[in-house]
Amino acid sequence: xxxxxxxxxxxxxxxxxxxxxxxxxxxxxxxxxxxxxxxxxxxxxxxxxxxxxxxxxxxxxxxxxxxxxxxxxxxxxxxxxxxxxxxxxxxxxxxxxxxxxxxxxxxxxxxxxxxxxxxxxxxxxxxxxxxxxxxxxxxxxxxxxxxxxxxxxxxxxxxxxxxxxxxxxxxxxxxxxxxxxxxxxxxxxxxxxxxxxxxxxxxxxxxxxxxxxxxxxxxxxxxxxxxxxxxxxxxxxxxxxxxxxxxxxxxxxxxxxxxxxxxxxxxxxxxxxxxxxxxxxxxxxxxxxxxxxxxxxxxxxxxxxxxxxxxxxxxxxxxxxxxxxxxxxxxxxxxxxxxxxxxxxxxxxxxxxxxxxxxxxxxxxxxxxxxxxxxxxxxxxxxxxxxxxxxxxxxxxxxxxxxxxxxxxxxxxxxxxxxxxxxxxxxxxxxxxxxxxxxxxxxxxxxxxxxxxxxxxxxxxxxxxxxxxxxxxxxxxxxxxxxxxxxxxxxxxxxxxxxxxxxxxxxxxxxxxxxxxxxxxxxxxxxxxxxxxxxxxxxxxxxxxxxxxxxxxxxxxxxxxxxxxxxxxxxxxxxxxxxxxxxxxxxxxxxxxxxxxxxxxxxxxxxxxxxxxxxxxxxxxxxxxxxxxxxxxxxxxxxxxxxxxxxxxxxxxxxxxxxxxxxxxxxxxxxxxxxxxxxxxxxxxxxxxxxxxxxxxxxxxxxxxxxxxxxxxxxxxxxxxxxxxxxxxxxxxxxxxxxxxxxxxxxxxxxxxxxxxx
Length: 758
Ligand code: PEP
Ligand code: MG
Prior knowledge:
- 44% of the residues lie in helices and 15% in strands.
- By secondary structure, it is of the alpha/beta class.
- The chain folds into 3 domains: 5-173, 2-Layer Sandwich (Beta-Lactamase); 178-417, PtsI, HPr-binding domain (Enzyme I, Chain A, domain 2), CATH 1.10.274; 444-653 and 670-683 and 692-702, Alpha-Beta Barrel (TIM Barrel).
- The strands form 3 sheets. It has an 8-stranded mixed β-sheet.
- Strand 15 (446-451), helix 13 (457-462) and strand 16 (468-472) form a beta-alpha-beta unit.
- Helix 5 packs antiparallel against helix 7, helix 23 (684-693) crosses helix 24 and helix 23 packs across helix 26.
- The longest helix has 26 residues, at 213-238.
- Mean pLDDT is 87; it is low at 171-176, 237-243 and 321-325.
- The structure holds phosphoenolpyruvate and magnesium ion.
- Phosphoenolpyruvate is lined by residues 368, 470, 472, 511, 606, 627-630, 677-678.
- Its EC number is 2.7.3.9.
- Belongs to the PEP-utilizing enzyme family.
- This is phosphoenolpyruvate--protein phosphotransferase.
- Its cofactor is Mg(2+).
């Protein structure tokens, strides 16, 4: 009866092609009546605020009952499924003691009933029901298949459910214009959404006609030119650094792009009245089809290449214009699936008031840069269909990790009030700039800053940073169009060292890989976070490392405040090799009449193996910096960028506290200076424990320094130690956070976690 996999795949595909939420849900119920050969299928979704299961789509019951019929949890059979979270498979539903007849549905006497809960990431989304006239239970096979379908659809349905677009009364009826995400950078902002490259692919394009063939042709030609430029630039500038398979791919893509077949096909469609995107979609489909059925997998792969080229061309065709040609607004909330650092660089920093990503998490590099720039950011936002909101007013609340679309005037006013209260509070903290970060019982904590953009040198100095604890050197690489030369790097490093001199600046060597991709050097890996990252990558690309070291050492020649920091160390021999390379580079520079001193060299502890091997590594380095972002990720096996597991990513997991205790004790035993430079250092609750653990140097984004200084100046280190002892007794981070939240409230430091909406 059920060809499970293929039926399921085609169901999911059809839904993904549906035009909107209502159409998608309609597809689901119709398809399920066909698959199960029943007269009725109904989908109930849980309303966000009222905790009721609302009929969201039906095939077989009265269509006008959609959106009007709802059941409380535990009310009727549907409510019972919602409460117990178990499927119900009944031969004769009306005889069940939970059965309720709802007149609006005009329900005929259906006996056969099966309902299954829709659950996504442990949360009830709704209930899916099928009903038949016969008086017998559905088969086991049918039940198993229904459960499988429900689990497959739950993710998609959660997005619909949260968006509220399915309610006939409109979203405001159920408060679902609030979209939850993950806090990535604190702050509140109201502004207009600027939706960037919606990750459109050719499949998303719908047919459109145009009467201006010449204009459409010009659109296509411009996109080809831009892509040619992108490919040629990428291939030529990378030169010898490019692995041969990648450079071959560049050549193949260029050849395909310039092939007369592609252009001829597109021209033909445009002349027949298509717009350029539709013509491109059709032409790519036709050309790819020639290859798709080939036996030889190599030839088949060419079909994939054509689609790939088509998608890249499409993005050029639809991409937003850079500043000057485009948006001049000063209150933009940039929104997209993932917003790259390069995307941010297109705008003037003054224009960007907030960042909203439907993908990524707090520790995506976009989040880190947003923190550096003091821009509120929320990542991994669910249930937000961005393409419906481009240009609209919205609110972002970086403290609570949510954004609000289509806000009422009253809501905008309320959030503007909160925003100005927050800004006032931050302004008041400016008076602390020249005061030391010292606890009430006299323990001094050094507050350094994390940086990577020249743009945040000023906030760093303005907020009283006592130096740079982490200079992420990959950020300037990410903003470049090709690997920067030694002299280009030298210029940037010199400016940073100079801006902070004589305060120390720890410059980390290139840490790309994972989510930090260079636009001109794509690294494709199944498991990028376990792959070619940080020191592994630079040791394998020695010339890149040497160029960078030369630039840093030369920049430091007359300034003398440089410290080198090695990212992602996981093996002792990586440290040894790195030290040799530094020695060789120093000798080389000396032989060129550029004598430079050996700076202190430190390692990041962010991989569990480094933690376990720390006693063997410490004799090789001058200082240690804890990268709590990656250490949490690797210790807990929780991807720092995956919104699905964002709730599990918490620096205050008990395992992290135990790990931090060990690092502190190894460093104390060997007398090695220790600091912490992950985002944990900007989390007020975490800082209570870091002080208790004995950490005396923290490096954090410039905008967070005043708040953390205020916190440190308000606590006693002895109570922080007591608090740590109590926190170590707990087995989960929620309890630890509760303890620390209560302490912050007790100390009158609640403001640190943002103003509360009324
Ligand atoms: C870290 O992992 O904590 C860290 C500071 O490095 P990054 O976030 O740049 O990976
Ligand atoms: Mg890291």
